[in-house]
Amino acid sequence: MLESLREEGMCFGCGSRNSIGLKLIFEQDGEVTRTTFVGAPEHQGWKGVIHGGLLATLLDEAMGQWLWARKIVTMTAEMTTRYRTATPVGVKLTVEAKRVAEKGRLIQMEAWIKLPNGTVSARAAAKFLKVKPEDMPKGASSLEQN
Questions:
Q1: Is 97 helix (H, G, I), strand (E, B) or coil?
Q2: pLDDT at 4 over 80
Q3: What pLDDT is recorded for position 52?
Q4: Which CATH number is 29-134 given?
Q5: Which run of H or of E encompasses 102?
Q6: Is the pTM of this model over 0.70?
Q7: Smaller CB count within 10 Å for the chain: N or C?
Q8: Does the pLDDT value for residue 104 go beyond 80?
């Protein structure tokens, strides 16, 4: 049932077939989800600095992957991102996420991006809302029929 929620390989964050996607590969390490990413010049905002919106995407994707790996279907309800220092292109970033709390349908998550020297360059706190798979949007083709 869960796989029917994704078009195979087309996720912007982790899809291997998405030509403009990030193609992130995640691992589970106990209660932490982890991936790495090296930003290229096409990912920059200011010269040599990864665009803040892309950093937020990395953080959101890591938190979402933590949930997906545990077969918890959610949608991001709220996310606060704090940028602590410029995140340069061309260096290997480590992106990690974990659950902070859970109450009813609401799951609180946090994620962070670490530079090679261990400095946290950005951090996010988010709330994810559990949803029933059958209540998820079915994509553009189903919307056109309504």
A1: strand
A2: no
A3: 97
A4: 3.10.129.10
A5: strand 92-103
A6: yes
A7: C
A8: yes
Query: What is the mean pLDDT of the segment spanning 7-19?
Result: 81
Tokens 């704090």 -> residue: 82
Query: What percentage of the chain exceeds 90 in pLDDT?
Result: 74
Long-range contacts of 7-14 (CB under 8 A, 24+ apart): 7/139, 12/57, 13/57, 13/58, 13/61, 13/64, 13/65, 14/61, 14/65
Q: Give Cα separations from 89 to 48, 104, 113, 118 (angstroms).
A: 5, 39, 13, 16
Instruction: Enter the tokens of residue 97.
Output: 């996420």
The residues, any chain, with a CB within 8 Å of residue 108's CB and separated by 6 or more, are 99, 100, 101, 102, 125, 126, 127, 128
Q: Higher pLDDT residue, 79 or 19? A: 79
Residue 55, classed as helix, strand or coil, is helix
Q: Which two tokens stand for residue 15?
A: 């899809």
Q: Find tokens 């996607």 and name the residue.
A: 21
How big is the CA angle at 81 (ends 77 and 87), to the nearest 5 degrees?
140
Structure-token match 């083709």, residue found = 141
> Which tokens go with 74?
């959610």
Residue written as tokens 């940028």?
Answer: 83
